[in-house]
Amino acid sequence: MELDLIKLIKHHSRTLPSQSLEGSLITAIGDDCAEFSPSADSNLLLTTDTMVEGVHFSLSYYTPFLLGRKLASVNLSDIAAMAGNPRAALLNLEVPPGLSDPSAAFWPPFIRGLVERLAEFGAVLAGGDTVKASNNKLSLTLTVIGEVSKGQAIYRKGARAGDMIYCSGFVGESALGLKILQERHVPLPLPVKRHLIARHLDPTPRLHLGEMLAHCSVTSMIDISDGIATDLAHICKESGVGADILANRLPISRAARSAASALGINAISSCLYGGEDYELLWTVPSSKSADMEKKIAAADGHGPFFIGTIKKGSGVWLKDSQGLHNITFKGYEH
Amino acid sequence: MELDLIKLIKHHSRTLPSQSLEGSLITAIGDDCAEFSPSADSNLLLTTDTMVEGVHFSLSYYTPFLLGRKLASVNLSDIAAMAGNPRAALLNLEVPPGLSDPSAAFWPPFIRGLVERLAEFGAVLAGGDTVKASNNKLSLTLTVIGEVSKGQAIYRKGARAGDMIYCSGFVGESALGLKILQERHVPLPLPVKRHLIARHLDPTPRLHLGEMLAHCSVTSMIDISDGIATDLAHICKESGVGADILANRLPISRAARSAASALGINAISSCLYGGEDYELLWTVPSSKSADMEKKIAAADGHGPFFIGTIKKGSGVWLKDSQGLHNITFKGYEH
């Protein structure tokens, strides 16, 4: 089983357009380790995510291509959150009996989705391990190795009282998309459904934005995988600060509002507690915020969302017309 | 669940004696990525292995400590086989309901076994991911990042016709140890049983030897995880050569002979086809073999085993009094 999947992975890695790492990848799949030559003056970034069928995804929602692509995207998003560039990846597969035939139609598009997404941002699939699953569920682990110029990485721990809090896009759309997949008949226009479902199945890792933010005096950063209430709480905890989020500033799209209404869900809750949007969330001193906003708007066509302020103390607080509500870590559970 | 296991891992990583990587590990568990500073003039080695309960291990044989330790050892062995030094590791856990309470007695010794083994060879646990399992089986993935001086790595692909084939220790003992664990009553002296069982449950990654061999004109190397017939076949395939193994030179210990006899197994088969010994297997030009043997003997107290010769052609062949037998890839299946 193992050898033939390796062949398939090798094949799909080779059919790609020229890749930035190619010159520095010395040995890849087919030896005891992959070997590559890091850039001078860079530090290494290491990140890994596991996705288990029935826990993190259902094969009734994902095409194999989109599943491979999402596995890459969620890992690449962690590299984006540190302002780095991905270079290489390792893939671990636990393969259930139904998929253990390497000629299974599942594998070529899965590998293509994964390898193409990695290549889009400059990384190659360099190795991995393929084993039998203990049951009939597929399990996927991807480890991504990235690089970041020494001194350029942005951590969770640098937020200071007075910093302004920003996020890169609408949040909550992914969780609403998943809900639409799970409910059979949701009375919404097809384009709205399609948009929200795509936000769940095919998120975009914000790598270019992350790198740009390394030059914008950003003090802390994280990617929003578990909802604003949880991911901002990580920043607060690591930085030893608190945060006030402004309810009327939450990045809720028109599509999200109409979907929340059709599903009978509170739109604010889906923004605060819904996961898997993979937007970036960061803090910046107020004196630097105008410059940062201008730079991002010039590159992206639209500015980032200002959503609140870092304060002394601890925890994440939602500020609305009723007052302050503690929402620390009230996040998304996969 | 996830956060508390992270706390446990942090705790056990911190109680260790000072580690070589400590100075260069900038951020570890608790950010989006781990970050570390690679040595100048080194290339990176990447390797990963997944172990699934019921496929690769049974919790009725392993203590949690030994399981964590073995997970580290099998990955470190791949770094040894490329003549590198391990630096950092990432751990992915798929946790079944019975073990999802982080106060479960299982986790502290498991993490200790893993982290101490990594530290023994200079690596730290720098991050990972913890998710719910899709069933009641535990699944473990470790990814190890190592370094090797530029130009020093030893690959599978360098063997040439005429090279002599060596291995670092007795082979087949691990598979016999597993068999003893599986059968209830095997008529063997207790010390023999204990030795063979320890060879299965607690293999030693040959990192010091691997590094030494980088200075011994070695042309190719691999670690023996799937038996000589399979692992030597990898070298032959990648190098475009064949190999003759001499039956009367096979590294079969006295303990292995008596166990094979008590179990009604052919001792030669257990040496050729038994897996998980994690000894090193390498090739060296015959003109350099005496020097290499001397260096290894001086460091290890005993020389390596000479077991056969690389030849033109392809495949792995066993040479005994009856002639030549093709044993290519007749290896171990987990």
Brief characterization of the structure:
Two copies of one chain form a homodimer. By secondary structure, chain A is α+β, with helices and mostly antiparallel strands. Chain A has ten helices and 13 strands.
Task: Walk me through this protein's architecture.
- Chain A contains ten helices and 13 strands.
- In chain A, strands 8-10-7-11-9-12-13 form a seven-stranded mixed sheet. A four-stranded mixed sheet of chain A has the order 3-6-4-5, covered by helices on one side.
- The first copy, chain A, folds into two domains: 2-149, 60s Ribosomal Protein L30, Chain: A (2-Layer Sandwich), CATH 3.30.1330; 164-326, Phosphoribosyl-aminoimidazole Synthetase, Chain A, domain 2, CATH 3.90.650.10.
- By secondary structure, chain A is α+β, with helices and mostly antiparallel strands.
- Helices cover 35% and strands 25% of the residues of chain A.
- At the A-B interface, strand 2, strand 3, strand 4, strand 5 and strand 6 of A face strand 2, strand 3, strand 4, strand 5 and strand 6 of B.
